[in-house]
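Incident log entry.

Two folding requests arrived from the same account within the same minute. Monitoring flagged them as a possible duplicate submission, but the sequences differ. Recording both here for audit purposes.

Request one:
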Amino acid sequence: MAGFAGASLAQAKPHTILVVGDSLSAEYGLKRGTGWVALMEQRLAKESPQTKVVNASISGDTTSGGRSRLPALLAQHKPTVVVIELGGNDALRGLPLAMTQDNLQAMTQAAQAAGAKVLLAGMQVPPNYGQDYTKRFSDTFATVAKANKAALVPFLLKGVADVSNAAKLFQADRIHPNESAHPTILNTMWPAVRALLR
């Protein structure tokens, strides 16, 4: 079994990974090719050259925007894995948590109905939002993942936003990670992505 578990991704079946995200995945403020999705594509080119990556992320997008865009993306690209990285802008705009959860749930179920495995990239908001809201927002991603047996990375920016030298890892707006942070983001996402490609 150990040998089977360690089998190379290069032997796995062809996959198409669709990433539906916001500015954190759309290389906002970055040189093209330096965001975590592009870095994932580069890593997959070595480990799983038959895997295709489609980055359908749009800066400023919300879960409502992703929900409305997803059906056409599923029909066009026929992904085997869908990464949903949305929700941060919902919080920034003060949108109701119930709506965010409903949208994430609908996107997860639509992707699964289309035959794809789903990975939710969780987000956390700063403590100035209040302890209750902060916890409920974070829990939203886990709730949707558990209800739909989807994969979950609890916090996309783990090792970036929650470290003592975080300021050095962000652009001047203090919202978007800079180029040096994106390899860390990829390393946070990679184990879950890799597991879904098995």
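Request two (distinct sequence, not a duplicate):
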Amino acid sequence: MEYPALALHVAGQWRPRASGGERPVFNPADESPLGALPLAGLDELNAAAAAAERGFQIWRRKPAHERCTIVRSAAGLLRQRAQEIAQVLTLEQGKPLAEALREVTLSADIIDFQAEEAKRLYGRMVPPRGAGILWQSVIRQPVGPVAAFTPWNFPANLPARKLGSALAAGCSVVIKPAEETPATCMLIVRAFLDAGVTPEALNMVCGDPAQVASTLIAHDAIRKASLTGSVAVGKRLGQLCAERVKRFTGELGGHAPVIVCADADLPFALKSSLAAKYRNAGQVCASPVRFYVHRSLYTQWAAQFSQGAQALRLGPGLDARTQMGPLIHERRVEEMERFVDDAVGRGARLLCGGKRVERPGFFFEPTVIAEAPVDSMVQRIEPFGPIAVVEPFDALDDAITRANALPYGLGAFAFTRDLLTAHRLGEEIEAGMVGINHFGVSQPELPFGGWKESGIGQEMGIEGLLHYTEIKTIIVGVPA
């Protein structure tokens, strides 16, 4: 499989060179260079924003049904090209090919759903309060050109959420994917353009992240920013938008708890939890991290969960036997080492893993830590890697309190066979998404977003589309 030649898309043209120079893109499974990524400078960034404004004036005027048809056509092209895109995704991101293929096909489903919702951006009529008014209506219109920022962990899914929603709503977009994984987004952009999206309405840039964000958000043409990223970056971009009174959606970090009740189906919970924890090497914003297990099950859980983690086969994602791929770069491996050293140094027990794998690539062992103190790094900071923490609880009240103790609230999970307990957990856990006996909280039809410092706003579902619109009240009176 050949890695494609990289280019930016600015003002309707693919640009293999840019004024910001270039940087190499590496395969995290063996550290080999894949290609050279052109980097946008101020010239390209300003040109992209200006083009987005011109493209918006054309794209917004297309009827909703026509936008729906074009955006759905892009989803169809993604399905046709799914194998190629998935292989590119695995080359630059590292996840197993089966995971990459599922990501691409789910991305097409997300785009499909948002395209259909374009035909259902309903307003409403409001009865007048008195004579002299013919009608009062409330309508939604596209917010305008959008600056979208996506990370490297899901290089197809996350651009698809933003592009599908924004374009379906009638907005134009300047998207900046992660510089580690640009080719996947490039192929998605190409599918939208091939489907018939107005060329100037869809721009793709890469470059110095701080410069790209500050330049685009400050540009008069940009009316909204959408970020999937860390809490720290989300706060900074939210501040930049607030200073200019621009719309902002932030899907930020998490630190997902899992409560395993005494009546849980233990084999099912173990199998589900292992798959969810080590999917994409734990590089998932809603990845389960803190496992609170009822004391009656705790010893068995700790032993079997550790055995399952140790049994996972590590390797390059293009190897069909691989169950967990590498981390994205060396910095993530070093960060995992710091999490483990800090926890063990504070008295935690290391049940398995805890070390980098001595082979080419950025591999780290699936790791399970028991009874990490509450002041340890792994209990306070999202590890964003293949590290799980397990600890016992006696009373459900205590487990819920501990689950809610952090300033994050993206995903949360629990296992129980009791209906009343399930309802209680769903009501009392503080998170934007709660999965009971199920980890699949990210579905095209459902809103995805967090509470507290885990974000503001939602993606997917009808809510994802509405965040790309403005509300307008129209009152028509009778002429005197």
